[in-house]
Amino acid sequence: KYIVKFKDDIARIATDETVSALTSKAEFVYEHAFHGFAGSLTKEELKMLREHPGVDFIEKDAVMRISGITEQSGAPWGLGRISHRQKGSTTYRYDDSAGEGTCVYIIDTGIEASHPDFGGRATFLKSFISGQNSDGHGHGTHCAGTIGSKSYGVAQKAKLYGVKVLDNQGSGSYSGIISGMDYVAQDSKTRGCPKGAIASMSLGGGYSASVNQGAAAWFNSGVFLAVAAGNDNRDAQNTSPASEPSACTVGATDSNDNRSSFSNYGKVVDIFAPGTGVLSTWIGGST
């Protein structure tokens, strides 16, 4: 069975007796969402429609199913919170797909890809810090675990890619960070990410037009960018990359649904999410 969509100007279709005959025997006729029909077609009918100037496109019918739901009991408070309307749950409910087919780049201090909680889905790609080729700090590994580890992660089947732009003390130059962003823009085109690519940046500093431009370029290339609002308890509009309009800027909340005391705020913040007392993976195979 096939779904046939007519072009918006259907005057030619309306006067075509052959197409009208096919429409009359269709299983479904569409008149409001778009103009078209669905039904069984012979090879000859299919060929005729594909060559018809009034047909926009034809696709095979397929089946949708109810999405399976998985429950993780004894979950950290943050996972319980994002999957329930009310606070206090220790159960994390998530779709069975769990981010499978999605690539997430963690632009940070690097990640400990060998951590058992990553289940072989993590890769340390590249360092832009001279002489440092691992996560000697822990922040990047913690962020990666919050994103996709099997015990503490939101998307527990996503692929995780670490790019080190911050040193083992947690600092990095704007120029080095932009180099990491430039690298990800290119690398994301080479990965098999059928569900898309995401870049996560839990870092920030004073406003930088260069950093924001790099973030905007990501967006234009199809990479979704999630950035931390910052931890300075001030308006995020004067920081980068949090102030970049195309980025999804995330502030932090505590277990009582209050803004975390350290979290930045303001009109550039798009959403708040659990950010105080978040348990996750750590370097040395620990939590």
Automatic annotation (TrEMBL):
The keyword Isomerase does not apply. It comes from the Eukaryota. One of its GO terms (molecular function) is serine-type endopeptidase activity. Keywords: Hydrolase, Protease, Serine protease, Signal. It holds the Pfam family Inhibitor_I9. Residues 234-254 are annotated as: Disordered. Residues 1-66 form the Inhibitor I9 domain. One of its GO terms (cellular component) is extracellular region. InterPro entries: PCSK9_ProteinaseK-like (IPR034193), Peptidase_S8/S53_dom (IPR000209), Peptidase_S8/S53_dom_sf (IPR036852), Peptidase_S8_Asp-AS (IPR023827), Peptidase_S8_His-AS (IPR022398), Peptidase_S8_subtilisin-like (IPR050131), Peptidase_S8_subtilisin-rel (IPR015500), S8pro/Inhibitor_I9 (IPR010259). Residues 99-275 form the Peptidase S8/S53 domain. Belongs to the peptidase S8 family. PANTHER family: ALKALINE PROTEASE 1-RELATED (PTHR43806:SF58), PEPTIDASE S8 (PTHR43806). This is Subtilisin-like protease PR1A. The gene is PR1A.
